[in-house]
Amino acid sequence: MAPLPAWLGLLALLAALAGCLGATEPATSLRITTAELIEPGAAPKPVTLPDEWEHSAPERDGAVRYRIEIPDAALHGEASGMFTRRAGMSLRVSLNGRPFASIGDFDRRPLPDMSQEPLLVPLPSALLQPRGNVIEIELHGERRRESGLSDLWFGPLAELRPMHARAQRDRVHSAYAVSAAATVMGLLALLLAVRMRRLTYAYFGVASLLWAWRVSLLTPPTSAPGSALGPALGPALETIFFYVSYPWFVSLMTLYALASIGRETPRVRRWVAAWSVAALLLIVLNWSFNLPLLRTLVSVGMLLMVVALMIQLFDAAWRERSQPAILLSVAALLAFGAGLRDFYVFRIAWDYGALTWSRYTILVLLGVLAWMLVDEFTRSTLALRSLNRDLADRVARKERELHLVFEGQRKRDREQATRAERDRILREMHDGLGGRLVAALALAQQVQPGGAVVDPESDPEAAETAQAHAHEAWGELKSTLDDCLVELRLALDSLEVEQRPLVEALAELRFRIEPSLRAAGVRLVWQPSELLSGAEFGAGDTLQVLRIVREALTNVIKHAQASVVWLRLEPVIDGDVEPATPRALRLSVIDNGLAQRTQQLGEALPLFVPGALGRGRGLANMERRAAAVGASFSSGPQAEGWCVQLELPLPPAATAD
Fold this sequence. Notes:
Elements: H1 4-21, E1 30-32, E2 34-38, E3 45-48, E4 51-52, H2 53-56, E5 62-69, E6 80-84, E7 87-88, E8 90-95, E9 98-103, E10 119-122, E11 134-141, E12 148-149, E13 152-156, H3 157-196, H4 199-216, H5 233-260, H6 266-289, H7 292-320, H8 323-348, H9 358-446, H10 460-493, E14 500-501, H11 502-519, E15 523-528, E16 536-537, H12 539-560, E17 564-573, E18 582-591, H13 593-601, H14 617-628, E19 632-637, E20 642-649, H15 652-656
Parallel strand pairs: 15-17
Antiparallel strand pairs: 1-13, 2-3, 2-5, 4-12, 5-11, 6-10, 6-13, 7-12, 8-9, 8-11, 14-16, 17-18, 18-20, 19-20
């Protein structure tokens, strides 16, 4: 079923048309439908009004006179007048042989067409006679143009003015209203065609603008007969285009309707294009040879096209029950009825003054298009909302799935990190604490109770040697156990997750290992730079650095035979950078054992020079740990003694500080 607004629009259109044609006749005014025609060089003859020259005298060109006797009953001593719905091209009016009104320019060629507006001519009371008044209308017309005279009304001006106003509204005001509506909808349709890339709207847009231009021309284009190839080519083409605009409008609306129901095919487009060209040729021939039959053929062709369109629309409406097909079927039916009525009135009855109904059919089509646009927008909006809800549901489901996946992945990452940290702690304890515990166990076996005891009285020297060995083993056991405690504390420190300054970690290591250094007779000189007080590293990197330092200090205790060891922490600054910003830190462990041993032994090289006779396991471990934190490692003699050096890049935060 068609929606309620469509039915209301159709009823309003029918009411408007009924109002245009069903107006009540005035009470005292009289309608005149006969006149005496006086042509130059011919005897007067009676004619019936309306008289359309294209039908009654197609070759007539020039001026004729219509002589009408005014019935005495139409004049009552009041202000009287004459009303006609249409007269053209230009005319002069005389009353009782005396001219009193002139409409149009008689000297211009081609003549201006004054036939589009209804005429109300007041009759001068000074020229009226008590009886037997005669009015003559001198009409100037041209061939191949819509010249003629419609029926006349005589009576009081008070009765004729409403008739004139109604005719003015029907012919002029309605034309402007239709033109404005068609222009707005045509521009809107073209805008939609461009934005949506749909040819359907382009058909409707061009057809609407074409109709708006045609309806708004109260004075149609004019061209002198036979001037199509002469200087007035422009006006001639404009006149031809005016007449061909109607069949082209029908063709474009046919394509629009078929495209709306999905039945516009290339074959249909070819047939419509061929008919449009044929209509143009028929109108050009009619303009050139003044053959009214050709215009009749154009009208028949338009009616046949509308009939073919209606068959397609009715078939689609019946088979598919689609709203566009139903609405367009109703619109096509009304357009066909209006066209059929106009064909009868203008081509069979030859009513020169009749009002065309076809111009109003565009309002139905505009209403159908407007409703289809609103319906399409509504359906698109509802579909978009449904799609949005569906997408929202899908996104919510995906978010839940991703959340579960993320939680699972995070759980696996935590488990993997836990395993990696456990493996690291086990490795550190195995490499550091495990080896020292094994050494401590071996020393404990040497000093365990119940071992071999030498009697001091029987062998004092052996007893003293055994006691010295036991005391030495006990000292080594104590030192080894201290190392185990340091290793355990380092392993526990590595479990911290927060960063802390490297100076602070080195200070703790100094506090823990300094007793061992003092027991070995080595003095520790602490020399950290204030520029690196805020340098922070991760717990893992800090542990690697501490192990390198501890390994270096342990070598000093066990092998260096040094009396002083320097622990230096200083920045590495590029000399050409301003302002001076540290890019790395240099950590050095320097002992004076190399110089002392050289002096004591008098040799070029000391007895122990790490790396001189081969690379020890301690140096290899230190190099491996330095590589793990991205640092460069070196060891070797310097002027102050043996130096173990580590150059570690500063993290970005520390560099910025």
